[in-house]
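The freezer alarm interrupted the setup, so I double-checked each line after restarting. Inputs confirmed:
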Amino acid sequence: MPIATFSEKIAQTLSTINYGDEPTELYEPIRYIMDLGGKRIRPLLTVLAHHLFEDEVDKALLPAAAVEVFHNFTLMHDDIMDQAPLRRGQETVHEKWNANTAILSGDVMLVKAYELFLGVQPIHLPIVLKLFSKCAAEVCEGQQLDMNFETRTDVSIPEYLQMITLKTAVLLGFALELGAVLGNASEEDRKNLKEFGIKTGIAFQLRDDLLDVYGDAAQFGKQVGGDILSDKKTFLLLTALEDSNEMHRTELHNWLGKMVANPAEKVKAVTAIYDLLDIKAKTEAKINHYFHEALEHLEHVNAPKERKEYLRALALSLMERNN
Amino acid sequence: MPIATFSEKIAQTLSTINYGDEPTELYEPIRYIMDLGGKRIRPLLTVLAHHLFEDEVDKALLPAAAVEVFHNFTLMHDDIMDQAPLRRGQETVHEKWNANTAILSGDVMLVKAYELFLGVQPIHLPIVLKLFSKCAAEVCEGQQLDMNFETRTDVSIPEYLQMITLKTAVLLGFALELGAVLGNASEEDRKNLKEFGIKTGIAFQLRDDLLDVYGDAAQFGKQVGGDILSDKKTFLLLTALEDSNEMHRTELHNWLGKMVANPAEKVKAVTAIYDLLDIKAKTEAKINHYFHEALEHLEHVNAPKERKEYLRALALSLMERNN
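Predicted 3D structure, all chains:
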């Protein structure tokens, strides 16, 4: 079965969900954000994890869709908090409607995500909802840490890794563990799949940090150096601050929080310090470290090698992406 | 057992919940809003409904607490949307912290409400979460309708009753049905308790509308005529618009949306029209109608009369409240 078949089943499932009709002001924004698309990576992880243990993937489709609905709920609320004007190139919900609509439609999306999980077999329901609720709270914790970091100047690298783990990686871990639970996998296989997801998620986020500075502007699809201009505490900046001598650290601190007339100058200056300190290679090493660990966990999962290949290929494609 | 014993058990249960620790910015607002107090009517309904069918109420305490956590989640998010400065006489969360904190802490509260429900017996879990999710979505629908009504001038009385049913009454209905489900009540008893809650909730909200105009300012604890000044589409206003002749209707419409130099004058003028049209008696009749229906549903519940007396007395106290 080509991977596109799994993706089509997921798209089909998502298209059949009826979130609700009245009042339209509440439900229309849900259909809008869900229809913006995206790569549907999380539900794909659930379905592919399930496929490791069972031939028939239909049972995993609604819970997989629930993960995607939850993910889009977090995007809707995060976009309010980050005052983001665009999402996938289109107006964000709070821009197209208003913040109140984005708050309330988001709330009902979280409820709908739980409702979709109610479709799992009763035997799996308690564990699925326990794992999901833990993950959902952690994603909120990650978003809170991310906001806290904006005004902090003493963020450590371990703190940063913890933040991206909570904000981004645990949901990938949950998506995979969910598929394993529904496929009646062993405790050990569940844990290995979860760790595969978490480590892949961390590597994925670090790669995002890297591409923001060293990516190809045209392919990356956003302004190169955006993180530098917004003084974002990325892995690159935190590593640079840690590895630099007194002079470079002072120079970096001088750029942080500075209103600049010429943005390109700031990007160029900070990138020059990164280059001096070999930050690109150090970040790549860290990415490879996590990605290698992720693949080791997948390696240990007791499932047919050809089925695990789907997940390995998907993780690989995430790492090689240019956007 | 005096009713205070049930209340104490609920207070005790709520005080032992650990919502989470880190980051404190996320969890502190939850403790703050939960500690603002309130009469804990909803969890009391759950426990009293459960007590109709079982002597031991301990099993109902955590789910009852979940209802209260959910209720406070809706308050936290509604207060952002309504830009309310105060809640129970204290600063609202978005005022004390900021809107982002109130959004995110609210989100995690909704997750925590679901987590608390996971403590019910596995046999009850699917139905409890199905009923709760339906109710939670309805509460969001009610809030959306309430916001829609702010800018509409053609709200009908049935639409208004539908809005308060969703925004306020269904949660009381769910709280009661929850207790019944946990007490293994019959389908019929469940439905009657639910309807008792919904009808009581509608009567309660109509009484709130009435007290805003005809309440004792000192006892009511808020400005008399606040709804008139904010042009709120209450049962009183909608009934007045429906029952008035051309002249009074024009006069009412002239006051709506009018910026007034002298607020007391507007309150006095609108109240005078209400008096002419006998709106107080008409509202009281509607309240009595719903309250009577509520008590009929309670009457039909197959449970010891002396146990049902707790619920009757509680509903009565809600109707006679001056604040």
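Quick read of the result. Chain A has a mean pLDDT of 94.
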